[in-house]
Amino acid sequence: MTALQIPDPSSCFRQAMRRLAATVCVVTCADEDSWHGMTATAVTSVCTQPPAVLVCVNTATAFHARLSASGTFCINLLKSSHVQVSQGFAGDLKGIERFERGNWRLARRLPYLVDAQANLFCKTASVVHFGTHGIFIGCIEHVRLAEDTAPLVYQDGHYVTTSQLAGS
Fold first, then answer.
1. Are 74 and 120 in contact (CB under 8 A)?
2. Are 80 and 151 in contact (CB under 8 A)?
């Protein structure tokens, strides 16, 4: 197989990142007035000691300011049955209407999706600003796990699901 030669790697960066499959998450926070959230795939673990994750949020979004002010957030790992939830938080719906899709409850002063694969309740430990984004590093304070796993995955501009490979 011959690798595609690209004269300017930055011009194809977005296309390369579309090939990076990722579990779809909804990141939520709350203030005294309302609940807030956004769909995200730029979520990953940082370390296990202490348990920590990061999420990248564009500084131009209203959610960035709300997340910065909140000090806590919840990462809800979506299941393959949550396409409508993901789309709602990705822009199909606005404000509190986003929480009308799915079974949302409040715990630790944070909205969480009851039937998510997992809910990671985090306290913001650090925010690193780089380029157009804020990288929120959160220390895990509590985890809820579902018994089953069926991740909603986003790749190349589409929702996909996973299946176990033969022999694994």
1. yes
2. yes
